[in-house]
Amino acid sequence: MSGFPDRKEDRARRLMDGPYPAVPAGLAAGAAARGDRLLRRRRALRGIGWALLFAAAAAFTVWAALTQPWTTPPADISPPLEGW
Hints:
Layout: H1 7-17, H2 27-67
């Protein structure tokens, strides 16, 4: 280092020393309201997702109970006779 101050460092120091820009009066309240809306929306979507998952599981259970896919289907054609 040659002892000269870095331009970026000098600019950063001047920005931190002030003057600071004015903050809008309702900024904190607006941010809190937006956060509340986002949390409510996320909570509602999570509830809808669980409800859809439960409905799908119930529909699958009813379908499986009615159709019994684990049993073999009855044969429409009889096996050929052998030995006659």
